[in-house]
Amino acid sequence: MNNEFAAELLERVRKSKPLIHNLTNTVVTNFTANGLLSIGASPVMADAVEEAADMAKIAGAVVLNIGTLTAPKVEAMILAGKAANAAGIPVLFDPVGAGATPYRTESAKRILSEVNVDILRGNAGEIAVLCGQSIQVKGVDGGGNADMRALAKEASETLGVTCVITGAEDVVFGKESFSVQNGDPILTTVTGTGCLLGSVIAAFCAVEKNYAKAAAAALAFYGVAAERAVEKSGHNRPGTFAVEFLNELSLTGKEAIMKKAKIEEL
Amino acid sequence: MNNEFAAELLERVRKSKPLIHNLTNTVVTNFTANGLLSIGASPVMADAVEEAADMAKIAGAVVLNIGTLTAPKVEAMILAGKAANAAGIPVLFDPVGAGATPYRTESAKRILSEVNVDILRGNAGEIAVLCGQSIQVKGVDGGGNADMRALAKEASETLGVTCVITGAEDVVFGKESFSVQNGDPILTTVTGTGCLLGSVIAAFCAVEKNYAKAAAAALAFYGVAAERAVEKSGHNRPGTFAVEFLNELSLTGKEAIMKKAKIEEL
Amino acid sequence: MNNEFAAELLERVRKSKPLIHNLTNTVVTNFTANGLLSIGASPVMADAVEEAADMAKIAGAVVLNIGTLTAPKVEAMILAGKAANAAGIPVLFDPVGAGATPYRTESAKRILSEVNVDILRGNAGEIAVLCGQSIQVKGVDGGGNADMRALAKEASETLGVTCVITGAEDVVFGKESFSVQNGDPILTTVTGTGCLLGSVIAAFCAVEKNYAKAAAAALAFYGVAAERAVEKSGHNRPGTFAVEFLNELSLTGKEAIMKKAKIEEL
């Protein structure tokens, strides 16, 4: 995949403004909605069991994120996921904090077994837990130091998903496989940047059936926007960075992606 | 109504600092509270069934917003609404996304039938659904292209409310009727600007019994603040705009309203 | 306690990056997580009854905040609090709005009776209610005009807690007693600054067993950061202040605390 295709996918998102249905955690709802609006997508959040499936049916993609899971929210996620499956709508799952508590790990595994997850996004620790490997996970913003490429490949094959692992290097394994080297460490100082990334990947998957390509393009776009934002905010100013990042999700366009995206086929 | 009266209402809000009780969605809680603090009002959010009514009784106005409704939240809204009714406290209802799913539409209709809603605020699609008209609603930030003035009049008469429909033009129908032409399209790129508007209208209704006048004044003030904010942020910088908008909700005063408010009696 | 020790505690927080488990209200989740990240701590929020205790066991400190309490959240708080007690992990309780409704007051008292709260933080009105005194509380951002030092002493002794009362002057009563005179009134125009303060105090208590000293150091640091932020934002710009405050929670270091902290032993 070349940068031109990544840029084209962004333009498709901006043209078709896909409705992204987010069943996500209470920490990041506002930031996620604003980030999706900034890239030109249309966010919706409806996690009542009574309507989660109905909303999923009219969405372009569905995001399941267990950052602050509760029993009714997990039911709603499964209903939304199954409805999306039935309608051929892509489902992205972000197993936030899997491994941190038994309930979180079990719920993540239950979602994976009841829903046909199309794209699985997490850090190395979370993905390892879902593959039956044990890596220490600390909190929800924790990293991990496994061999990420091998892990992503294993998760993709054993779980039947396009797997996206984010860290110093971002890795995508699915129909095709990519490494993406954009972004900036300041992203880890703003809560919800990982969660919003999941929703941005979902927006790209809403306009491109090759989810591996869609994810790699979204990762590159997201990383380039972060690089441009930190140029304006400087490091160590997480408040200003968050504002500039929302700006750059709106301002970053074809030209910047063409010049700065670092996508490598594996 | 002249601009002087609109400016006077803002000063009344700032002097009396009304307590606004918001039963609202999880996406906009923070932005709503900050916006209300910026205008000088006092926000509270208490949506447990055990206390929603008690909190309503001590509020200056109550806002019911179904953006992320669940069954217990709908019960709490009805309890709060009835308590406010009994105490003569104004109730504003924002039927976010009515029409998008059956559960949302039914819940909105149930609230309207069990609570005496004083002010109904929504976009054209949402209001049309509640009047039994069918306009396509896409997501929760969707618009609509009905004849807004006719729709607002119909909603006001059939539902017995002061009806506020927002869009390119804002329309108020109640004891009196107004068109307000302030604001900026950038508002649609920041989530919760519609929800916060509902809470700001409620704050103006807390200090003025003529809800049509109060709503028109709130719409003009809100729109002027947005116009001033976008002058500072520029277009296409939704992150910066949100920050400047919170600033302007605090900074915009009598003089700016006198000069820039565009309120027309219908 | 001298300013040098306060500065040293901040450096301990930044070095050990304690995991702070926040069972908090839906208005401030995002701001709290971002604030904790800015100071260098690691936030987690998990308020399901199924996992609240498990997450508490691996945390450096636990924060219970009833700003938007519901019955299941109160159960989760009690489970998390008891698990922290059993493991010797400090528990901070913020009885937001106690006194405003009977349910809120009863829930606050129930938490105090079932959990061994280590640090109790609130405004004068909230603390007075929990001591059986009656001071009028208006909303959740309300103040109070009791003799704060006497009230903090009484709460500390009768409830067996380190008591922190915030207002124009901040007061700490526990093993030792302090008055802290940092901060700026603009803090009251941004929602969640009180709630985040609770979490920042908890982070300092995660690295220092003398909770009175830890709280006084946290109050001084937090106040100095606010003073530096308002120098950049100016007064009356709450949007910009919130951004600069998150920046200053990251930028404010040893030197600033040494120079500007105003901690007085009582």
From TrEMBL, chains A, B, C:
Keywords: ATP-binding, Kinase, Magnesium, Metal-binding, Nucleotide-binding, Thiamine biosynthesis, Transferase. GO terms for biological process: thiamine biosynthetic process; thiamine diphosphate biosynthetic process. Gene3D superfamilies: 3.40.1190.20. Its cofactor is Mg(2+). CDD domains: THZ_kinase (cd01170). Pathway: Cofactor biosynthesis; thiamine diphosphate biosynthesis; 4-methyl-5-(2-phosphoethyl)-thiazole from 5-(2-hydroxyethyl)-4-methylthiazole: step 1/1. GO terms for molecular function: ATP binding; hydroxyethylthiazole kinase activity; magnesium ion binding. ATP binds at R121, T166. SUPFAM superfamilies: Ribokinase-like (SSF53613). It catalyses: 5-(2-hydroxyethyl)-4-methylthiazole + ATP = 4-methyl-5-(2-phosphooxyethyl)-thiazole + ADP + H(+). Substrate binds at M45, G192. Pfam families: HK (PF02110). Belongs to the Thz kinase family. This is Hydroxyethylthiazole kinase. It comes from Domibacillus antri. The gene is thiM.
